[in-house]
Amino acid sequence: MRHLLDIVDLTTEEIDELLDTADDIIANPDKYRDICKYKKLATLFFEPSTRTRLSFESAMLSLGGSVLGFSEASSSSASKGESVADTIRVVSCYSDIIAMRHPKEGAPLVASMKSAVPIINAGDGGHNHPTQTLTDLLTIRREKGRLHDLTVGFCGDLKFGRTVHSLISALSRYENINIVLISPDELKLPSYIKKDVLIKNGITYEQTTDLCAVMGKLDILYMTRVQQERFFNEADYIRLKDSYILDREKMEYAKKDMCILHPLPRVNEISTEIDDDPRACYFKQVANGKNVRMALIMKLLEVQA
């Protein structure tokens, strides 16, 4: 039995296979319609979510399976003080696979130690979000045709952004990847990620506070929101939340085929005037997320079309 807690749990070959399966799902949806008939997915979301939770549910329903679970901790026995370990022991009696989001880093690891079924980390605090990373990789590959020879800019909250941390870890395993880190000083990428991922893997990277100065070299721009829920100090959040706003004026500096990604939800870091720009790919990401999660569910349940 396998779990997916971190994107590094998958080899690059396994990632490529999942992306290939997702591409086939997009091309031949009827082929996968009943592949998980009679299987049950439990979605345990101890932290609010719209896209990720509904994406998992849509993925399982599209595979012919069914879904149960809860969308916030207050509607579960966690509100009564039940531990994650006990919740997982119980829910794994009712389901075949579990997708879990939790505000505390490491909670899915605890869950995997107690579960009788595969666990998928759907986001744990500021740590990891591996299925968003698979979504991002699928989008990049479908838009650019490759996952190598790319210059990727990450802009906004790089300190607490778990989607950023996961995607950097994944991209670092592909050839000729250059990383540009764009953030205010207070929201820089954690030093341990620079040391353990970028430097360790020999990835070329640069840090800057000026988005326009580096825009012209980017193949991918990964925008993120400044996350209020990660701040302990309201004044710091208010001061930093509008640090970078991508608008039509800034897009004048970009390549004609640059790809804009965003894990969503956005607040105001991407102007709605950008939505009709052919380089805006963030809503394509949403659709890709369902398909790659379908591929992952099939892999962990060991079912084939």
Entry keywords:
single chain, alpha/beta, four-stranded parallel β-sheet
Structure write-up:
With 305 residues, the protein is of the alpha/beta class. The chain is 37% helix and 15% strand. It is built from eleven helices and nine strands. A five-stranded parallel sheet has the order 7-6-5-8-9. A four-stranded parallel sheet has the order 2-1-3-4, sandwiched between helices. Helix 4 links the parallel strand 3 and strand 4. Helix 3 packs across helix 4. It is globular and about 55 Å long. The two termini are 19 Å apart.
Secondary-structure blueprint of this entry?
Elements: H1 12-27, E1 40-45, H2 51-62, E2 66-70, H3 84-91, E3 97-102, H4 107-114, E4 119-124, H5 130-144, E5 150-155, H6 162-171, E6 177-182, H7 191-199, E7 204-208, H8 211-215, E8 220-223, H9 234-240, H10 248-251, E9 259-261, H11 282-301
Helix pairs in contact: 1-11, 2-11, 3-4, 5-6, 5-11
How big is the Rg?
A: 19 Å
- What proportion of the residues form beta strands (DSSP E)? 15-25%
Using DSSP, what is the number of strands? 9
Helix content: 25-40%
Mean model confidence by pLDDT: 91
Largest sheet: 5 strands, parallel
Short description:
The chain has 305 residues and is an alpha/beta fold.
